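Incident log entry.

Two folding requests arrived from the same account within the same minute. Monitoring flagged them as a possible duplicate submission, but the sequences differ. Recording both here for audit purposes.

Request one:
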Amino acid sequence: MTEFDVRGAAAAGEGIDPGGTEPIAAAVIGREAEVDRILRSLDVRDGLPQALLLLGEAGTGKSRLLRVAAETAERRRTRVLSAQGWGSEEPQAFSTLHQLLLPVLGALDALPEHQRRALRTAFGPAPEAGLPEIKALGAAVLTLLGHLAQACPVLLTVDDLQDCDRASMHVLFFVTRRLTNQAVTVLFTARGEAPPAWVPTDLPVLSLGPLSDRASALLLDAQPGAPAGRARLDLLRQAEGNPLAVVELSRAAYGASEPATAGADPRQTARIQQMFAARLGELPEETQRALLYAAASLQEDDLVTVMAALGAHDLTVWVRAEEAGLITIADGRLAFRNPLIRTAAFHRYAAKLRQQVHRDLAAARGQVPARRAWHLAAAAIGPEEAVATALEEAATRAAQTGDCFASAKALEQAARFSAGVHDRARRLAGALAAASDVGDPEWVRDLYERFTRVNRDPELLCVAACAMSGALSLLSFQREAFDLLLDVWQRTPPSRATTSFALAAVATGISRRSGLPEHRLPLPRLLDHAVRAAQAEKDRCAQQDGFFHELSGPEVLASLEAAVSVGIDPVVRGGSDALRRLTAPLSEPLDGARRLTRLLATASVAHHADESELCAEKYRQAGALRGTRGTLGPRAWTLAAQVDTLVSIGRWAEAEAVIEEGRSAAAVHRLTRVDMDLEALEVTLRALRGETMPDIPFTGPHWRSVSLDENRSTRARMLRACGLTAMVLGDGDRAFRHLRALFAEDGSPLDPFLSPRSISELAAAAQRIGRQREAARILEDVRERQGARPTTRMTLLMHHAAALVNEDADPEHHFRLALVNPEAEKWPLERARARLHYAIWLRRRRRPLEARVQLTAVLEVAARLDARHLAASARGELRATGVAQAPASADRLAELTAQQQQIARLAANGLSNREIGERLFLSPRTVGSHLYNVYPKLGISSRHQLRDLLHDR
């Protein structure tokens, strides 16, 4: 199977260059940009002094980055001198400087006598003549470093400078200001959000903020025994992007049913408690007690509520904790400087006292009912129906505000405290539906297992089956997902319209992702059942059901009916007719959840009808209805289609933003299929831009473990990405193999929607290698399947393909039909490609003036889209028509980044990729990727041209 061509190349194993930065960047998850900045500061080839201060709160990874720099420097044969500040003791004058220079004190003999004496006096146990002046000592250190740098570069690292003695730091600041033409780099770290007041303001600062959601999730995944499901989400929220908190909370949660927030065994948090025991123990008892209340409070609780529960009347109780750097108070809220401090402050007390604190917080004056419910739940031990009811009410309020995470969590806890089995099953079903909206499959799976042990209600089983099948689909298990849904429907078909439509919609979504013919066959029966259920209800579901409120109402059900109908067969069911009904004015406005459902359904119909601009607008509106931060909700099912649409209409920057958002959420919630789809689209977009990836794509664990046979839409996107990448690399044979695999031997499409829309790309690859007849047979099958009324876009694509591969037709006739329709402007890249191929045809028939008109239009589109490979092809054709090539001017060279200019000059001087990589500390693969992107910008295609270009300057 052709998609394994790419994987096989990676499996063959290209080793990572030991001089490169990739292994180090991978070892510091989420800090790749910071690592790159630090390692560039070690580049002393030009003899420029380098100094940098890494600034961040405790646990943000400052010391780890400093170690990375030191280890890298040592591999580069750089002398590393290090010092560490110690906050537990009062440092003596020049003790840090002594610690830093201790390994090289033997080199003092090379210094002038007065400088040697100054250093020895400063480092002596009891200087007789007093301490030397800062300037004299700084001059001595400067001379010493200059002497050492003659043998090899030198790196000085000082960790936690806020705990170092001031005298040493003033000497080092004196030195950093005066380092000239010496291979010396100085790296400092400091704790806090701002440098200490005595640090020079001209010292460059690199601030380390919280990790992104994606990086935090990847870091958590790297920990042994990391929690899954809701416990995973709780941990990530509590860690707040602090790397140390992610690691330690994961360690504390190992083997536990609950994360190390509230309710966990204190023994699991003993390591965290020990980290902060000294700092917390130094506080007055009343401040320690106040921190317990603050730690037990919810992040949404304001300071007034905490102080009311505490019985405090002014802020005096918090002063010592603020001075110790444990908390901050601002805008009526209290925040811990480090998430681990909250954990330590809470778990250092006995369970009975923690329980009383939660009761006090629940009873505090002015406490919000939803938060009161959470505190009552934290204080409860066994089933309490009053607590369960309060949590269920909190879940309802959270759902109304769009916070599906809080709603699912509250219902899960409500089920835990339910006294009756039926109530427990009902609340678990509600938690399943809400967790499905969160888009976390592992949480859904855990809830489903508990639900099936207590449920006896057939209608609830259908609700749960929708959630579980959706979760399985997001995890890429399409056959298991569809079989579960169909089995439940056949055994206990739902009676309510909303549940019936939900089941039909989920089944349609699974069918689209799997692409399996057997999954499309039952869809008409599912839809007919849902329509009959709606007709049987008075006023067409005017009475809201207990679940799927977002599907209630005739307008919403009509949109779902249209979306399912088009999903069954977009050609036969008539997407354009459905769109006219869906875009008609509503009789009354819809609330947030129902509006989101209708928007997504309308966007889905528009996508299949190739109404791309309308589709993009509906997806944009749906994206604006955000719920819980970091969750995708129902959009997890539609992100790939949204990116497809944005790419096709030339809004590539928006497509990149959606990909970034989606991959971040996919990492947090482990959405396997979503991440695979978006990775394929990311590679596609890079290929369309004319870029190549430094690493071979589609070699991650997902691609090795997922069955692409039951995820055909994902496989289709991957094949197209591989084909386009091969086209950019000039490998026509491989491009054709990948794009040909979008269709079976008999011409039937791998994916009924995606495959036909790659027909012109397949035709272009076929023409390049002389396989026109094979592509023409596939084109004929595509034309037949599109029916008598194909969409405008498909009509244009088929004319373009016919002009390239249909040997019995007039190519110019088809080229003109592919270009003459003004609607083609909606898909700028596809039209520009048709113009390019038409220009090539014109040139070969000695009609250069007409070809130039087409090529000029291609260049305009390529510039607007930043499609560099397309632009380079058009410029090449222009030269072939007799247009003189404009010399690569200084402006064109200025378009390159500083690193690209470095690489270009070294390549022009005859250095190989590996030699360039060794000089710039990059892998040869990364160097090659940079050069490939440089050539189109300079209007060249080889190293010989690069040498001629730069040597002429």
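Request two (distinct sequence, not a duplicate):
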Amino acid sequence: MSDLPEVLVFGSPLRPRQSVPRAPRSPRTLLTFLLAALLALGALAAPAHAAEPGGGSWTVRQPGAARDGVSAEVRVDAVDGTVTLAARRGGVTVLEPAPVGIVTGTADLTSNLRLESRTSRQVSERYTMTTGKQLRRTVRMTETRFSFSGTDGARLDLLVRVADDGIAYRYVLPGDGGDQSGDITVEREASAFQLPGSARAWLAPYTPNYERVYAPATAAGAADGTYGYPSLFRVGDTYALLTEADVDGRYAAGRLVHEQGSGRYTVELADDTVTSAGPLATPWRTAVIGSLAGVTESTLVDDLAPASRIADTSWIRPGPVAWSWLDGFAAAQRSLATQQRYVDYSAAHGWPYILVDDGWKTTGWMPELIDYARKRGVRVLLWAHYTDLDTAAERAEFLPRVKKWGAAGLKIDFMDSDSQERFRWYDDVLRDTARHELLVNFHGATLPKGIQRTWPHVMTLEAVYGAEQGHVPAAGITTLPFTRNVVGSMDYTPMAFQFGTRTVSDAAELALSVVYESGFQNYAGSVRAYRDRPELERFLEQVPTVWDETRLLSGQPGQGAAFARRQGDRWFLGSVSSGAAGTQGVPLDFLGGGRWLVEVVRDGDDGLVRERRTVTARDTLSVPTAEHGGFAGIVCRAVPGRDSCDRPVSRLPLTSLTVEPARTDVDAGASVDVVGRFAVEEFGPAEDVSLTVRAPEGWAVTGDDPHAGRLPAGRDLRGDWTVRVPQDAEYGGRDLVVTAKYRSPDGRSARDLQVERTVRVFVSPPGVDHVSDLPFAAESNGWGPVERDRSNGERDTADGGALSIRGTTYDKGLGVHAASEVAIELDGAYRRFTTEVGIDDEVGGKGGVTFEVLADGRTLATTGVLTGTDPARRIDVDVTGVERLTLRVTDGGDGLDSDHADWAGARLLT
């Protein structure tokens, strides 16, 4: 929250004027003059009013508005001294009188209040955002301060602000000390919003991460419960979106408590009590009020927030992000090759960022990836759990380290709290990330409450039931533009065509790039899903993520939404609907005069299709739409010779390097055949292309290193080599490294580009059989399959990473998840079983399991509980004469989450 707002009184003190001889006035003329002067003073100034006995009511109106504008009415009851606040839009009462007031540890300021004075001022500001629906903002509000005294002289100021897009109020409390700086403990607010019982409502049950689906109801008919901000209501043709603004570590966030049968929604704080140093200004209790377009286009929440605390924002650059989580989950984040693939795709399509999510911290290659991306004009964002940054010491170590690597920013996850303590954490981490010039995306987070104005390096926040849930109903998708996304950037993560259950058409999904506003648009598709939809790729190359102007063209919550958003001299259109197929008409009266070229991408019989037409502002754009469908579009000036609104894209060729085999076991003295293939998939050519292979010292390589001066799109370069392992080779794993070097002809790269892939060769000692190479007589696993020579990725075969326990990597072994059991038939052929066991590093020190080795049903060894922070435990047992060996893992008593257990190096000796 901001410091206490300055209280200004309209006008200036009256100054004596020089005496000028005038003709004498008649009494009537003099009376008329005095009345006119008094009226003029009333219009231009609002002096402080002295104490007003008893009750009364006062109206605060939006600046410059006639009586059909937005207004708030504050009323003091003459009998019990309670205070209520109501809101109107023109002649419509949108919010009926509802209580205001607050209870502290020393005073009940909800009744027996007496108005001591009131003053008014005009709030007039201009500011510029780095994100959002409108970059340049103008603020005009009327603010009235009502100063009350309560029992035993306790003091309370009620600040009410009214703008053309809504009303807000907050409390200002002096501290308990003589200088007003003593601590204040707030026990509760009486604050509430009272809607007409029949008002339509769109509500989401409250959770600290705001990840629930909005559902329709009526204000009175909604079930008993707690509802999250923002909550949307309709009264006649007027809408009210209830939320809060300017929350920081001096307070806790709130939510709305409702009892069925009543139209009242009462503010409840996340904490039982809140303690802060005085004087304390509480968050703004906010109602965005207006037409549906007015509410949707409103910037009121940001307008109420404190000004930016970052003077130089030149380093802050929003943009599209390639995000791979929904195309492989943690396993994809642990794969350098996968992340390089996303870098290559981004460089080929002009996207400035990739995001590496949970899993990368168990690898050692992040600096290598960041350098790889930098050479291709792409920057890397890194995931972090909030507990990685919840102390000053952790931030002092982590933030400079990733900044030194060259990371562009962080996705910080799992805050999952609206408490004052968590908001103090937000204050700290925002200050420190800004100091290191790291961009921020919050997931598992609170709602935007003006944070992006105060801290403009916050690109987006989740706080939404988004695409990663796997199934978002079309009605939910079409409610979000009028609710959650009104108050700030929303990281819904669209374009996840390969994941979950699709509920809208391809064109509607594409339209979300325009319909949903987010400074980082974290596109969640796979490279294959994008390439299967070339018109989608083309549109996503053009669409920006921040806007100069936003217009709601049509729509209703739960039914559909059509937007036009402008950046520079181009408009972008996005429409999504919930319902049957049909034809959608969109008025184009937002365009200026003259002729315009419109390119529309819609659903066709065989996928997305693009259509062009020339229009004027007098036209209505008609587009056929599929069931739960929509469309996307670009609009630019129609000029002779222009047949597209596309702008040139700075891109590199999309290339790939593959090697065969990826892994192999060999005996000393044997050889390995290696094939490397470098392909230019799109946007060629690549020039001066070469392939080489590098082997450990003493290993012999035969075969030519191929070269191509120019490799066009659709062509590849292949290399074939034979690598002989020396007879005296050391046992264990070694890498054969295939390197492709090439140059992009467009000059974007200052040096030759290169990419490497490895063939992992394991040299087996004689007389040893590794368990991972043997057939299983039986197997069961808690999550996903039992993995051979890989950790457990929880989902699909081979989706894990390298087996790793406390920093030691193992080439061979089993990766399982408790509860797990693997049986191997030995038939009495072996004499010993050895392994090193522990919880895999991929879970980051979490988990707890017990390992047990059984021979023909009897226990040979058990470890007791091992946690994710314990070192590997060695097991070495005699299995002479054993017919069946069983390897069992059970939960350590802390629940099955993160129980990724490794039988590292598990082997049988003959």
